[in-house]
Specification:
300 residues; alpha/beta; Arc Repressor Mutant, subunit A; D-Maltodextrin-Binding Protein, domain 2; 9 helices; 41% helix
């Protein structure tokens, strides 16, 4: 007999209290319910129910097997529900959080693609450099930079934050273009406040150079750092994804392209919830396709 049907007969019998009550709930004859349970017991090689003419009770093994069967049937129901939801219209409210600069410079320009695919989804986007608690603060999904430590989340790896060092052509014409990282010490630098005192590290083959600029403007906004550099105020080290358009447009010139400047991992996070909505599923697909590395799933 079909294993799932046998499990359904067993679980319903336990929940209903008798085979006759289960037969009503399942729309089957009591004899058929009994055959399903007997087939299950034969398959397992042990009894699940102690039965008398007046009552029934679970055996010790039957009690633990009942819980496992109920969980399996719940998962099957959830899978079927997800399939049904997938066929329905993608709509509703989606709360998203992302780091401020990434959100403004990379996420927002890319969202037109998602809006085309899911025009009925209402997007509520909060840009903050604080690591929010998705569950407590009611977010569906988050972009996050740095090392992952929260094992309650599912994390999808995105393209890492690869760093580049740039300056405006006008600044370089006035101050000179450094040919080696060690020459940065005499230049003006602009840094994002949280990382302002961290040394700039450069690697090339066996060379490992660390420079901490002494003449520095610090700003608590990544966007302001970029704007200041375009205005010719100094040299910056920022993620490539945030400076790509300015480099392509000629507003910034890249320095030391043959040196490695390190990278920071970036993730798309969402809660471990078996009832994933179509809107969340569609946004995850969009984000991984747009910013993803290789689509690999990393369960933290």
């Amino acid at each position: 007999m079909d294993l799932v049907r046998c499990m359904q007969a067993f679980v319903t019998t336990v929940q209903a209290g008798s085979m006759s009550a289960a037969s009503v709930a399942l729309g089957q004859s009591p004899a058929m319910v009994g055959q399903h349970i007997a087939a299950l017991e034969e398959r397992l090689g042990t009894r699940l129910l102690n039965r008398t003419t007046r009552r029934q009770s679970l055996t010790d093994f039957g009690s633990s097997y009942f819980e496992q069967c109920r969980d399996i049937l719940d998962r099957i129901a959830l899978a079927e529900e997800a399939a049904e939801l997938q066929r329905t219209r993608i709509q509703g409210r989606l709360r998203i959080t992302a780091p401020t600069t990434f959100g403004a410079e990379a996420l927002m320009p890319a969202l037109s693609g998602y809006r085309t695919a899911a025009p009925d989804v209402e997007l509520d986007i909060i840009l903050t450099d604080r690591n929010v608690d998705l569950v407590e603060e009611g977010f569906d999904v988050a972009f996050r930079i740095g090392t992952m430590s929260d094992n309650s989340m599912i994390a999808r790896p995105l393209t890492p934050y690869r760093m580049v060092i740039c300056a405006a052509p006008g600044y370089l014409a006035d101050k000179g273009t450094p040919s080696h990282p060690s020459e940065l010490d005499g230049h003006e630098a602009i840094a994002f406040t949280p990382s302002a005192r961290s040394p700039w590290r450069f690697t090339r083959g066996e060379e490992d150079v660390r420079v901490t600029p002494t003449r520095m403007i610090t700003v608590n906004s990544g966007q302001a750092v970029r704007v200041a550099a375009c205005a010719g105020l100094g040299i910056i080290m920022q993620p490539e994804i945030l400076l790509k358009r300015d480099i392509e447009a000629g507003f910034l010139a890249r320095l030391f392209p043959d040196w490695g400047l390190g990278e920071r991992p970036m993730w798309l996070l969402y809660y471990r919830d078996r009832r994933m909505t179509p809107r969340l599923r569609s946004f995850i697909s969009f984000a991984v396709a747009t910013f993803g590395r290789d689509g690999e799933l990393v369960a933290q």
